[in-house]
Every structure is written in structure tokens, then in C-alpha cells.
Amino acid sequence: MSEKKPAKANVWPTDIAYRVDYREKNGRWYYGYSNVLLEFKINWDDRLFNSVYSMTCEMAVTDWEKNITGEIPKFKNRLKSTVILSDEAMGFSDPDFWGEYNIIEPEKSIESAIKKIQRQLRKSKSNNGQAAR
């Protein structure tokens, strides 16, 4: 999904903070977690007052597998560099894996959500005839 700024609006960030965590495994560092807080102001040409919005986003790696085949995803299946935010569950063979739960409630900790997702991954793998990790 690609959204463009309306022509009658000026948008500028007023505050941004981000955090990225990596994990070390066998002497190499891998992406593990990130979160972003973004606040921005919109000045509409035809409105008297500005609008102020804020958003937070968290992303965590719950499971990964080494690409031993060296196969590269087709271009249409890759995330485009122009995408900043996307509400799309991709990369899972089970289309019902996330269901309605692709968003974590603000009052829940990311750690509890990761544990829940890891349980779902184990369950999904065991249902597909693969050994659970």
C-alpha cells in the first residue's frame, strides 16, 4: 500500500526516537528488536488549526532460519525500500497464522507477545509434520 501526502497539506516531524537491538550468535550480530516513536504535525491549507499525530511501532524477530540454498526471493515478494510502514503479514506459509492478532495491545509487553508468537510457531511447525524447536 502506498500513500502520498495530500497536496493541500504540509507535514513535518516534531519528534522522533528509535531503538534497535541486535543479538550476538556465534560471533555474528543479528537484528533482534526495534521500536519507533514518531510525532508529526500537519498544516492543512484550508483549516485554521494544525493537526498533531503520534505513532509507535515495535518489531521483533521471533524465529529465523539460515538460508542454506542461497535462494533470493523474487522482486515482487521483497519489501520495497520506499515502504516505511506496512500492516501486512508476509513470509508465512500459513495465511491464518496471525488471524486478527498482527497488532500487540499497548498494555501487553513485547516479551509476552514474542513468547506467544513462538508458541504459535512451534504449534504451526508441529502441525506441518516438522519437529518443534
Counting DSSP H or I runs of 4 or more residues, the number of helices is 1
Major sheet: arrangement of strands:
1-2-3
Structural class, please? alpha+beta
Share of residues in strands: 25-35%
Q: Report on the biggest sheet.
A: 3 strands, antiparallel
- Give the topology string: H per helix, E per strand: EEEH
Compute the gyration radius: what is it?
19 Å
Mean pLDDT score: 76
Global morphology:
elongated
Low-confidence stretches: none
State the distance separating the first and last CA atoms.
34 Å
Q: How many strands?
A: 3
Fraction of helical residues: 10-25%
Report what the structure shows.
By secondary structure, this protein is an alpha+beta fold. The chain is built from one helix and three strands, in the order βββα. It has one helix at 110-127, and strands at residues 9-25, 28-44, 51-60. A three-stranded antiparallel β-sheet has the order 1-2-3, with no helix packed on it. The two termini are 34 Å apart. 0% of the residues are buried.
